[in-house]
């Protein structure tokens, strides 16, 4: 009978999986954690770098603002200029003051910077002449690059930006704002008073300075390419209006917020306290993630490299141990199948060497014990068969001699002689040179000899019929397996003064079926079952149990005797034996 091997995961795979779980899992966790920390660090570093770049841009703007304020300071702190602006003399003296002192100082201030600067000086002394060009709608600063003009302060006294100018604090009061045509031409102006600095406690206004510069030049350092492609730099005023922008991104007005992600962009801000404006830098998240992707790829590559290396090492180690376990398992499998000749050839001085030596010793001892048990069982089985055979012959002999005695008692010499001759034939076939295995042909001859003895006793009251397949006569069986059932029928199955017995023999697939059928009194199903279970030799039907046990001892538990009987109808005894060739003993 085929017994499929149970499905299980081999030891080598279990060991490999254990290595992968216990080593790769921590590596994966460490890799993930390290990657997260590195990515966060890189993002922070990138933000810091961007913030630093924006701070540099802010410092460049401050430098240009400071440069313009420096020019205003040159005029503000020039005491000579202040004294000449306070002379209030008419005529030639005013003209000479203007031409020899004021204009050179104004020209020197304008030319001291590299910026495009339009310097407008408004004087409180009406005696000093105005010097300016009436350019109309033309932006003279575009034409002359550096330019100054001189006006009387009365021209701006009605302007809101002049009236709202803060109260003077020595050296501090100044304002950056867009006045007049600044917005039209994209400029912004530094506004500052000129005062008499001889007495800081009594600062009297003697003039007003307006220095105009282009926003494009002031914010020339705000180049979005320094941040990265797809970014945007913009300068917004206090009201949120965009004063200047550089970049590819088209945005709506954004509120000023701390560094945060907005619409897929990172917002970085820097303040321009001199103007009260804010520099906003919108950086695409994709630009930030370029470094993150590189870190992820490097982390993944290193992790995969570790996985491959660990897998190779784990595979080698698991194979190293699984091959040794495979040797042990192969030996145990052979032992399980009953082959104890298998041995393990193992060299070494470790636990596997101890296991191999123990299994080899166990195989040798088991093999020796099996041989001893096998020989003992054979002897026991042969002794039991001979014992059962010895029990049948005396039993039959006792019954036959009783019948011969009765014939002699009644003087039936001829029948007595015939019975004795048949008894001699029966025992000649039974002894069969001491063999317990005989052919079915000889077994049937024994049955016929026995029935011939019984016919002498019963005459016409006993009717026997044989239905035997000639092909089964050549096969072997153990002797005396049919006669006990016929004897049992003659002892217990009579109905009235006659009985009919039929002996059938045929081949069924790979076994032979022998049947003894009678039309006697029959028996109950319970009683029939007891005949094959009883171990009390004194009970009736001892011969049936005897035959059944001898067949199973010789051929196995799947063979033997079965009984079908119904009271008042008769009994059918079925004997199943395997097909045994004649040369099998």
TrEMBL record:
EC id: 2.7.13.3
Pfam families, alphabetized: HAMP, HATPase_c, His_kinase
Top-tier EC class: transferase
InterPro entries named among the record's database cross-references: Bact_2-comp_sensor_kinase (IPR050640), HAMP_dom (IPR003660), HATPase_C_sf (IPR036890), HATPase_dom (IPR003594), His_kinase_dom (IPR005467), Sig_transdc_His_kin_internal (IPR010559)
Membrane topology: Multi-pass membrane protein
UniProt keywords, alphabetically: ATP-binding, Cell membrane, Kinase, Membrane, Nucleotide-binding, Phosphoprotein, Transferase, Transmembrane, Transmembrane helix, Two-component regulatory system
CDD domains (UniProt xref): HAMP (cd06225)
Protein name stated in the entry: histidine kinase
């Amino acid at each position: 009978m085929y017994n499929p091997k149970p499905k299980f995961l081999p030891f080598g795979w279990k060991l490999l999986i254990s290595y992968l779980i216990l080593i790769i899992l921590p590596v994966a966790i460490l890799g993930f954690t390290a990657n997260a920390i590195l990515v966060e660090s890189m993002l922070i570093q990138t933000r810091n770098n961007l913030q630093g770049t924006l701070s540099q841009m802010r410092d460049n703007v401050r430098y240009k603002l400071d440069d313009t304020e420096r020019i205003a300071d040159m005029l503000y702190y020039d005491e000579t200029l202040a004294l000449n602006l306070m002379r209030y003399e008419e005529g030639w003296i005013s003209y000479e003051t203007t031409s020899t002192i004021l204009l050179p100082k104004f020209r020197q201030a304008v030319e001291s910077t590299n910026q495009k600067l339009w310097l407008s000086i408004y004087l409180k002394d009406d005696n000093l002449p105005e010097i300016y060009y009436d350019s109309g709608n033309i932006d003279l600063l575009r034409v002359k690059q550096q330019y100054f003009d001189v006006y009387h302060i009365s021209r701006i006294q009605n302007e809101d930006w002049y009236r709202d100018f803060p109260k003077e604090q020595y050296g501090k009061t100044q304002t950056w704002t867009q006045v007049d045509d600044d917005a039209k031409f994209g400029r912004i102006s530094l506004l500052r008073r000129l005062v008499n600095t001889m007495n800081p406690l009594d600062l009297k206004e003697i003039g007003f300075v307006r220095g105009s510069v282009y926003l494009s030049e002031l914010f020339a350092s705000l180049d979005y390419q320094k941040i990265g492609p797809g970014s945007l730099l913009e300068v917004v005023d206090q009201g949120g209006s965009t004063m200047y922008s550089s970049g590819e991104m088209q945005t709506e007005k954004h509120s000023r917020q701390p560094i945060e992600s907005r619409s897929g962009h990172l917002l970085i801000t820097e303040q321009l306290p001199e103007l009260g404006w804010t520099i906003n830098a919108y950086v695409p998240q994709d630009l930030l993630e370029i470094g993150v992707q590189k870190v992820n790829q490097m982390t993944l590559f290193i992790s995969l490299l570790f996985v491959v290396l660990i897998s190779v090492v784990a595979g080698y180690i698991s194979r190293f141990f699984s091959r040794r376990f495979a040797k042990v398992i192969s030996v145990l499998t052979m032992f399980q199948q009953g082959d104890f000749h298998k041995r393990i050839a193992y060299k070494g001085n470790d636990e596997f060497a101890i296991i191999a030596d123990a299994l080899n010793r166990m195989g040798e001892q088991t093999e020796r014990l099996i041989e001893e048990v096998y020989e003992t069982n054979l002897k026991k089985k042969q002794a039991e068969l001979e014992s059962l055979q010895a029990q049948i012959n005396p039993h039959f002999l006792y019954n036959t001699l009783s019948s011969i005695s009765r014939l002699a008692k009644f003087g039936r010499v001829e029948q007595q002689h015939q019975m004795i001759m048949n008894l001699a034939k029966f025992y000649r076939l039974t002894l069969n040179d001491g063999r317990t295995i005989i052919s079915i042909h000889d077994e049937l001859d024994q049955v016929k000899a026995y029935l011939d003895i019984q016919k002498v006793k019963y005459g016409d009251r006993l009717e026997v019929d044989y239905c035997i397949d000639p092909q089964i006569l050549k096969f072997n069986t153990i002797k005396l397996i049919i006669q006990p059932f016929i004897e049992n029928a003659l002892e217990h199955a009579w109905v009235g003064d006659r009985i009919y017995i039929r002996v059938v023999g045929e081949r069924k697939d790979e076994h032979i079926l022998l049947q003894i059928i009678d039309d006697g009194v029959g028996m109950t199903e319970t009683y029939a079952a007891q005949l094959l279970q009883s171990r009390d030799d004194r009970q009736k039907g001892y011969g049936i149990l005897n035959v059944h046990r001898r067949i199973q001892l010789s051929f196995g538990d799947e063979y033997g005797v079965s009984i079908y009987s119904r009271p008042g109808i008769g009994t059918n005894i079925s004997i199943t034996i395997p097909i045994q060739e004649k040369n099998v003993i």
